[in-house]
Every structure is written in C-alpha cells, then in structure tokens.
Amino acid sequence: MKARRIFRGTVAGLMSLSLLLSGMPVSAAEVSGTVPQQKEEVSGTANNETDSKTGTENTGTENGDTGAADGKVNDQTPPADSTDSDGTTGGQGNEQTPPADSTDSNGATGGQGNEQTPPAGSTDSDGTTGGQGNEQTPPADSTDSEQNPAEGQPEEGQEQPGENQDDDKKDDVKDKDDKKVTPEEKDEPQEDLEAVAAHSLTTVGGRIEIDGDLSDWAEVTSRSSGASGVDSWKVAYSPDGNTLYFSYTGTASTEWDYGFAGSGNVFQFEYPDGSTGENSALSVTAGNGETLVKNAYWGNVAADVAVKNSAHGNNPGPYVVEFAVPLSYFQSPEFTLTFGGTSVAAGDIEQVDGNSVVVDVPAVYGGITIDGSYSDWAAVAKTEVSCPNDAHKECLSQVAAVYDGDWFYIYIKDGKGSNASGAGTHSNGKFAITSDLGYETDIQLTTAPAVNGVNGAQVSYVGDEWELAIPKDQLPKYEESLSFGLYLGEPFISGIMNLQEDSGNNLENLFDGINYDGNYEDWEDYGHSTIEYATAGSQEDQIDAKGALYSSDGKLYGHVVTTMPQHLEEAGGEFTAAVTIAFNQSRSDLQNGSYDQKMAFYPMCVTVDGGGNINWNPQLMGLPEGTYEFHIASRDAWHTSANINNLHEMDLMYGKMIMTVGKDGKDEMEFYLDLPMVAQKLGVDETDLKEISAQFGRIGQQWIFTAGTSTGPIAGVILCISTVGIVLWYKKRKKNELQPAAA
What we know:
By secondary structure, this protein is mainly beta.
C-alpha cells in the first residue's frame, strides 16, 4: 500500500512539474481524486438581511457533490465582487436578484443553483465561483497523490488528502443527515422564527382561516382605529410563527362600496434600522372581482386575502377584510405596526394557538334586542320564504317571529334583487299580523328604516337583515295565537303564541254568547273575517273592515266594524246598503254570483218612533256622531203599514240593528234576525237553514259565514265576490247616545 502511495505521489509530482514548466497554475485539487468535501462558510447579502430556511447549508453527494442541490433556488445573493475567473457566477433561479455590478468576466450569470454562495473573493483553484456547487469536483482522470505544503498540501493539523476515505464517506453521509431541513423550515428564515419565539408572545385561542368570517378571531385583542370607515382591527401570529394575520372591519355604504379596501387604509411597519422599502407597508385593494394585497410600492404581495361586503343594494352593511402574509416578507421580525393611528410592537402581538374557537349558539331563546346585531335570533327557527311577485320572487329569503310578553318581534332576511320594502304582489312592502280570531294589524316597511301603520314600533335594518318590535297594544285581538305574512297573502308563520304564560291574551272579554245591546264587547273574543275592497296594493294602513256572524237559539247575530277613513265618511251608509243574507248556498256559487236568490234575504232599515209609527225612508248615511237603532224589514216590503202594531204580511219586521257612528275613530254595528220568520218568508222550515252567509257590499266583496242554528261560534271564511254599492256620507255627533234616525 505504501509503495502504491509513493508511486501515485511520484506521478502526481511529475504532472505538477510538467504543468509548472508549461506555465499553467496547479493545485492539489486538480490532481487529487480524494479531496475531502469542504463545507464552506458563506455570508450572502439577502434582501431581508436574514438567512432563508432553504439554502443555508450545502449537502453534497459521495465522491464529490456538484452543489446543484436538486434545483433549489437560492435565497442568498453573491456580493458584487464575487466573480468566476471563467465568467460564471451565482446559481439557477435565485429568489434575490444579484446587484447590477455582479457579473462574470464574460458577462454571464447563472449556473445550476447553489444553496450557498461563496463570499467575495472566494475562488476555486480552477478560478470558478459557484457554478455547479461550492464543493470541488475532481476531474474524471485525476489520481491521488501525496503533496508537500508548497504543492497545496494542508497545513499541519489538517487531515491529509486521500486518507481515511471510508471515514470521509461516512462523515459525508452524517453531514447530509445533519443538514436536512423540513419543508416548514424551508418556508421561512430560521432567524425570523427565533426572533418571534424570543418575544415570549401572549397566546390566545384561535385557528384563523382567511374566509371573510371573523368568528375565529374572537379571542384576539381588538384595536381602535381612526382610519377611514374602519371600526376596529386585529393582528396575530400563526401558531408556528411563520405567518402574520391581519383583519379590520367597518361599515360599507352600499354593496358596491369598496373604498374601505385601498391605499387609504394602510398597515405601516417601522423597522429599527429605519428601512422604508417596499416591505414597510401593506394594504388591500378590492373590486371588479379581484382582491389583492399590495406593498408600499403598490406591487402585489403573495398573500391569502378575503374581503366580504354585507351591504345590500343601497342599504349599508358591515364589511370584513382579512389577509395573511408570510413573515419572510418583512425587512426584520422586529418592527412597530401602526394602523388607523394605533400602534403595536411586534413583541406585543398575540399568537393564536391553532385551536378552533367554539362559537356558542344559544340553545334556547334568551330575548331580542333591536340593535342590528341579530345574534339573539340564533335560537329562533327561521322559515324559508319567497315573494309571490314573479318580478322579484327572490327578494325575500327568510322570516322568523316570536311573541315575548309586551312585544311581537319579527325577523326578515332579504334575498336577491330587492328587499322587504318592495315585497308583495304590488311591491309595496306590506305585511300583516293576523290573529286566530281573524283580526289583523297591517304594517308597511320602508328602508328609512321605518314601520308604518302602527305606533311605537322599533326597527333596525343592517345589510340584508331586518328586525322589528311591535308593541302589544298594537296587535290585533287574539285568543291564543298570531300569524305573520304578507298583506292579503297566506301567512308565512302561524301559531305564534306568547312565550310569557302569565301575560295571557289581549282580550278584555271572553266569548260567552252575544247580547244584542250595542256594547259590542261580547264580539271581541269571537272569530271575524276581513271585509274590504282593498287589494294587496292598497296603501291604507289598516284593513277596510271586520265582520262576523253567530247563530244561536233561533236568532242570527251579525257584527261589522270599520276604521277605514273612506268608510267613515259614509257615516252609517256602509252598514245599511247593499246587504245580502244568503242561506244554504255553496261558496263557489256565492263567489261567481250564481247563488239561488230565492234563498236570500235582503234587509231594509227603517225607523220607528215612540208611538210605533214607521218611517220607511229614514236618513241612513251622513249621520252625526252617535248611536242609532233601526228595525229590519225586507227590501221587497210594500211600505203600506204605517204603524208597527198593525203590519201587513208584506211589511213584517224581522229584526233590529244598532249602529254607532264616529266613536273612537270607527263605525260599528250589530244586528239580529229572527230565523223562524225568515224561514217562513223563504218558504222553508227553520231547520232547513243550514249554512248562513252575509255580504256587506258597501264595505267589501267578501262573504262571511256561520253554520246553521248551532249554539257555538264558527270562524268566518273569506271569499271574494264583486258587488256594487252606493256612496254614503256622514256627520259626527256625540257618542254613546242611542237615538232613532230622523223620521
């Protein structure tokens, strides 16, 4: 073995001598095929002045690595004076661009991509720097040789070239294992992570996702802001410290308003060395379907970003901006961040722990506050709805309602294209709260926002969500429950009962039969039906009228009340003209006007004075304020009888009517008919009068119903029948006066 080494050394010496005589430079690296792999210390110039996780160390291969590092890009940039004698420098695909004066002697740059770049003036024995790797690669035909120090041997204390080759190989493998880095470490500079860790950051719960939902920011400190249109902002480190998260929120004026995302709202970074480069600021731009994060020079930043504008049409609503930027973006991990006039040092920024924030959704209803937050509606079931108007069927999305003590709460969520203020067949935003007794309270929404038609209502309208509160004293009379829906439409929600059991209903009198006396209270707890000419397009704040029929003990009782101004102007005429009482008629026949008129009774109101004298043509409209009583004859009476005590068989009186005009802003009446007498007139037996219906043509086109001569109430059902009437007028007089009409 020693002889071989002597022989190889001799050959190497001869080759060196030959090369020296030829004038060419020579080094041991050119003649030794067993030069150990050298790990060179480098000091690159990085744009962010920190080492990258990738490219911090070389990992060569056995028997001479080329240093290409599998095509990995360099984070480090060679200094300006680092050039190769053969004109090559650098590595393939550096993240940082070499300075302008860093060029090869032949003007070329590039290579295959070193993980490390040699410092200035560091050249290989063949005059190359970088190229295919920092470690030297021997020529294919090179041989081992012992050399003296003058010929490039290592100085005393250094390992002799070519010795312990097996040990060298093992060391190479060990070095490569020691130098392996994880993918996560390759993403960020190690120094950045160490700097973040050195801050001993405050940890808070959260696993932030960039999705426009800030619920996962719940435990991060909220900071005040004086920035334009910004309510508050937050910032936090990711659990691994690799990323910095940002968010801010405020109110957008319209769904097209993205002024909150732009150069007006900028996150500013102040570094210890005073750097003011491109990484000294961050902002977000949004609109036209594109959302970007911008640096201080308005260049794009590789970042995750989400912007959500919850305004609906021209109605203001909240917006959210959140984005995430790698820590490697910043000039230094040491900085002071300022946004909207509020500053925070890097060490004071919280770090989320990666655990998802549990958002508590109320399992039970806990009350409603009209404040535009809507979170208190979480425990109230929502009903999916649509609008009956084909022009904007999606203008409504959801509704909910809850009756809690003294308030009736309503939730409405707009859909697409329009909003609740334009909902309905006539696009007028009219809704109705209807009771199980048939009474109704109508409301109309405006985007002011406001609730028309009731007093004392509360309303909030933010983004695409409404919440309303209607006082109990504005609700219709009900026995057990209420319904909510569009005006003159099928209810969206039915069976809404008061959650406060001790509140009871809003009835002052429970139904216990009807007494004909002009007090009307006994009708309060009895089912009524709507009577009106109005359509869903009516702009009235209230319905035309309510009516009901009740039969018991051989008598038919009827009740009608109206508050509509146009009817109040008739002052009595709305109750006394165009009235029809029909018996045993199908509802379809009544609806299309084909009912049997031989089974109909047409009442006529007359007055009788104290002496029993009959006035067959009394004043029936334009009555002064007061209470009046009439006798009911048949419209086909002969009018030949002068006194009620001496009636012709064609002038019989079948019942009475009491009418109150102008009291408490309404007209109201009740009547009764003697059913045996009516049956005799119609030529049938009393027991044949099974179903009875009535129509008050001056008030509306609906028929109201009751059943035969039962002893219990049956709620009215509305059918739309067109009728024709006459216009009547009235004048007000004192209330609570029962008086006969003028003779």
